[in-house]
Amino acid sequence: MSWFKYYKEQVKVIKERDPAIKNNLEVLLYPSFRALYSYRRAHKHYLKKRYFLARLISQRAARKTGIEIHPGATIGEGFFIDHGHGVIIGETTIIGDNVTIYQGVTLGGTGKESGKRHPTIGDNVMISAGAKVIGSFTVGENSKIGAGSVVLSEVPPNSTVVGVPGRVVKREDVRLPRLDLDQIHLPDPVLNDIKLLKEENEELKKAVTKLLKDAK
Questions:
Q1: Residue 169: C-alpha distances to residues 126, 127, 162, 198 (Å)
Q2: Helices 51-65 and 31-47: crossing angle, nearest 10°?
Q3: pLDDT tens for the 216 residues of the chain, in order
């Protein structure tokens, strides 16, 4: 892909997903613009087994942007990293099309596997700030990972995952995360459990009070 074609693609992607952008030239200032372009170059060298050159390009980009993408990763079209600092994408990661991730995200391995040891991210997935997706499994298409979540196992398509460890709290939400980049209004299973316990506790109190009155 030529630089100009890459630039036009990134203008479209960033204007679609970041309301902060005011004009096309601002795209050049995004850390993800430089990091992803360097990744594309490095990945070509990696496929030709020029491993040192590939890593040299990727590490230079990491030092300048705070985004570390291993040249061995496979990344689809329409990928966007908002803010970006602290992002790590491991060697055997596979990322589909139109994926959005935020600062502090790790797509990593457990350190105990060989071969395919990093996650596969399906199309149209959004991974919120600070989330960690660790291991060789798939995050299904159209899914959302909540901020700060730690995902350690398979995520079905059209799911919302929150918590540590990550739990699926919503299924079959078919809105595309790239068009609904809401990191805040996600279900909170812990809060829901506490609310349910409070309600049950009140019911028990009422039942005990009634039993005591009836016993008199």
A1: 15, 15, 7, 20
A2: 170
A3: 688 899 999 999 999 888 889 999 999 999 999 999 999 999 999 999 999 999 999 999 999 999 999 999 999 999 999 988 999 999 999 999 999 999 999 999 987 778 899 999 999 999 999 999 999 999 999 999 999 999 999 999 999 999 888 888 876 655 555 556 555 556 666 666 677 778 788 888 888 887 877 776
User: Please, are residues 121 and 100 in contact by the beta-carbon 8 Å criterion?
Assistant: no
Cα–Cα separations (whole angstroms), residue 173 to 20, 154, 158, 177? 26, 17, 5, 9
Which two three-digit tokens encode residue 159? 């799911």
- Give the Cβ contact number of residue 47 at 10 Å: 12
The pTM assigned to this predicted structure is: 0.78
Give the pair of three-digit tokens for residue 91: 């060697």
Q: How do 159-162 and 167-171 pair as beta strands?
A: antiparallel
Report CA-CA distances (Å) from 87 to 41, 91, 159, 174, 203.
19, 13, 22, 27, 47
Architecture (CATH level 2) of domain 3-185: 3 Solenoid (2.160)
* Residue 167 DSSP SS3: strand
Closest of 115, 46, 53 to residue 74, by C-alpha: 46
User: Distance between CA atoms of 3 and 21, rounded to whole angstroms?
Assistant: 20
